[in-house]
Amino acid sequence: MSAGTETRALARVAQAQAASPQPGEGGSRRRRKTNAVTEPEGRRGKAGYGLVSPGLIYLLLFFILPVFTLLATSLYVKPPGADVGQFAPALEFGNYAVVLGGYWTELLRSFWFALLATVLCLVIGYPMAYLIAVRLRGHAFLQGLLLVLLIAPFFTSFVLRTQAWKQILADQGFVVQTLKTLNLMPDGASLTTTSVAVVAGLTYNFLPFMVLPIYANLQGLDSRLLEAGQDLYANGVTTFRTVTFPMSMPGVLAGTLLTFIPASGDFVNAAILGNNRNTTMIGQVIESKFMRVLDYPGAAALSFILMVAILILVTLYVRRFGTRDLV
Amino acid sequence: MSTDTAQDTLDSTPAREEESRGSELTLDQVSKSFGDFHAVKPLDLTVPAGEFFALLGPSGCGKTTTLRMVAGLEKPTGGHIRIGGTEVTALPPFKRPVNTVFQSYALFPHMSVKENVAFGLRRRKVRNWKAQADEFLDLVELGHLADRKPAQLSGGQQQRVALARALVNQPEILLLDEPLGALDMKLRRQMQSELKRIQTEVGLTFIHVTHDQEEAMTMADTVAVMNAGRIEQMGAPEDLYDLPRTAFVANFLGRSNLMSGTVTGTGSGADGLLEVETSGHRLLLDASRAVSTTGDVLLGVRPEKIALRPAGTRAGGQPVVVGTSGVVNEVDGTVTDVSFTGVSTEYRVDVPGLGELGVFAQNRDGTRIRPGDPVELTWDPARAFGLDGAEDAAAGEGAA
Prior knowledge:
The complex is a heterodimer of chains A (about 325) and B (about 400). Chain A has about 325 residues and is mainly α. Chain A is built from 14 helices and no strands.
């Protein structure tokens, strides 16, 4: 009750502040001052909860509740003689066994593709982040330019960019032509609708998610530590191996998670760049079950399996490379 | 496991007895420019092996740049650097037999204290690195904190880890870049004597960069005072203090009263004395203590070399200063300011024609002198010094 009042009061304050004319800095300062004077000490903690509550309510409504709905749906059964897409509430755990039996290859493939894409992103992205954050230190313009270039693709739709990769990897495209000229690809082969294309698309689409956290981390790298490494008989490579890279682990960890998790659930890349035989990812299966086949329990069960599997993998990964013993 | 370590420690003890004495450092016309800015002007310098050498100067004087060039972290614009006779000018830092204690310590935050100390040993593939790291952690009395992370240590402890991390490699030259700058006064004094003890114990060549003149004088065998990219004067702390050769050194290393005047002749009645005419006063100066013996000079005298007594007490009392050559300088003035610091009192005395002079007096007797009191100042011509009259008498004042 009182928390609700608080929230409303805060919302009013926020509104009033937003409404106050922009140059009127004095207005908001005055308001803050009055707050400080009238607000008793003990209410500060409550104000904190008040500020958090919109987020909590949002999460409750649009995350926690849907998860339970999903869980419930995954246990529904199709009553005999029901229409397509008609299910009845039940506790049919067998749904899990059925989808797992039917789609374990797609599930494993998803993780495999996501892992490949993550490793590729790391290999391609780390040097990019290092270049921008460390090598170009003091060249603010170049740093800014490269960061903009990195983020610029986001101005175009994800689907469009993935579609563009179809052109890039097309049989008449320069990639295939070049590879064929160099005899690195047999004449009849093509790259479109192969797993190479899907992984390439995943790598491309998630690269910024790898680069940005590593960049943010490396930006704070104290160059004096690199000098200390050099001073203590470590050459450039050894300094990187023993100082720079271990210290950037929080960024690497964040980047790999931000790449691996969405990549393993992705369906756009596989749908656009893959085929129906050996590139299908679990996201595609879930999407088609929900949208086309209207097998809601199956789709929900697969979603749940994917979620739990990712949770387990991520927990193991964070336990192994976690940031706990970093500063 | 733990017995192994103990065994290692025993084995390694003789290794340190071998005495890796330091090496001589030679800078031959070494210079460094950043664009148009000449951070270090062509510099010649020789630091004998095993010496505790201090580079003293205000910030921006080029002392840290000089140190970084020795470490290899900065490439000289010109000149040659030799360590123990070997040319190292072109060597990268990791191939030089020097180690640095950085101003910010630069400890690796992701490694434990022991891993930090062992870093250099492991890079050089020293086999008993564990034992050696332990040994040097004990040397700086941090053995019990070996498994902590640097962030869990106090500033003084971090400083000692940085010292152990550099020393454990037994470099031919240890470079210290304002290593005590971040410590508070008390810890700083404590670490000064600690550093001095360790230097004596390991016998390495230490090159210590600092802007703290007291620190430089307390620790170093030789102090070089740097200003604007060049060494102004170099010598034992006592000599530098006693006989500064430039106004900058006179003011930066301790304090000085500098009075401009003109040499008018040799002093009457005693040999080797110069007579200096300052506005309204004839002051004497030991000719051997003057940079130039003709023309315009700056006559300098340290505040503690001046004796002060209330005006008019001479008739009854004994002279406060007896000059070595039987003569003294004597001027009259009026006290303008008195600061009492306990063991001593600092007076500012306005002397007509000479301006304000600073005087330190020990509080030996109960004499109370207040602002406005007329006083007589005396000093021994053999304790004064003469500088080039063309110099700025305020050079180096307040610089740090």
